[in-house]
Amino acid sequence: MRIGLVGTGRIGAFHAATLKSLAAVEQVVVTDVEASRAELVAKDLGLEFAASVDDLLASGIDGFVIAAATSAHAALIEQAVAAGIPTFCEKPVAIDLGETQRIVELVEGSDVPVHIGFQRRFDAGYRSAQEQVASGELGFIHHIRANTNDAFPPPREYIPTSGGFFRDCTVHDFDIIRFVTGREVASVFATGANRGESFFGEYGDIDAAAALLTLDDSTFVAVSGTRYNAAGHDVRMEVLGSLGSIAVGLDEHTALRSAEPGVTFPGGQSHSTFMDRFQPAYVAELTAFTEVVAGTRAVPCTVRDALQAFRIADACELSRRENRVVSLEEIGR
């Protein structure tokens, strides 16, 4: 099959290389608003180049991958739906809740499959956790702890269009909590601070946050994150049940060191980026997309899944700003 890709920045170029490596993909066609960047990626990877999105969509592609800037996602999904082309889009669906809801209605009113990129759903550890929770072998789940700690902050210019810490960073935790537990979030209480570079605060953002989520079955979930974790990119989840407890992301690469005398675990090299941490998951995710394109698999992460994660992020931002518990019923469906 031929897969078209728009957006050849860091994650886009990474996806292009991954797609090229897949057995089901015969050719990848790339484009970008910065044509020279797309041409360079095409040359480096041996791909086809299209001068524009319109040219790309008209070039006979079987599937469309959106890795462009967040602000372009909604319009690109609209174009793909109009063209009837199965689409993969990096999160989020859109820059705000209202636009996200509009795109959800558009996609659900069509027969075009749209797969949203939350790669943790394809990570072996998280999938194992989901299976153990669903099977009941952990008993009832009473607490979950989840964290996303970036090794280093994004550049200043990224922050104004990022959507803020909860919508950009911990939204991955919100999605995977729903995936692992099969439950919905009922309420949140969140806080955050600007501990590092002042540019976060200049744009009304934060670089460290914590939130307590209460699920609809009264499970408590503590979520935390930071843009400053020089020990390494650290993404983990602890699931504590009445019959057993498990941890995702606890291995030789975990960016923690024990303070206990004589303990050497974990002793391996920590991950430096999210692409390093989740490389196998990205391969599995895009392989799943080729199966969606082929019509042999249902969409594994829908636009409505993305909407639900976005609602939780919006609730956390409202809670942080107003210093109160926020019910998810307050946030538009």
From TrEMBL:
Q: Where is the GFO/IDH/MocA-like oxidoreductase domain?
A: 126-246
Gene3D superfamilies cross-referenced by the UniProt entry: Dihydrodipicolinate Reductase, domain 2 (3.30.360.10), NAD(P)-binding Rossmann-like Domain (3.40.50.720)
InterPro entries referenced in this protein's UniProt entry, alphabetically: Gfo/Idh/MocA-like_OxRdtase_N, GFO_IDH_MocA-like_dom, NAD(P)-bd_dom_sf
Q: Which family does it belong to?
A: Belongs to the Gfo/Idh/MocA family.
* SUPFAM superfamilies in the record: Glyceraldehyde-3-phosphate dehydrogenase-like, C-terminal domain, NAD(P)-binding Rossmann-fold domains
- The species this protein belongs to is Kribbella ginsengisoli
Gfo/Idh/MocA-like oxidoreductase N-terminal domain: which residues?
1-118
Q: What is this protein called?
A: Gfo/Idh/MocA family oxidoreductase
Keyword annotations: Oxidoreductase
Q: Which top-rank group of organisms is this from?
A: Bacteria
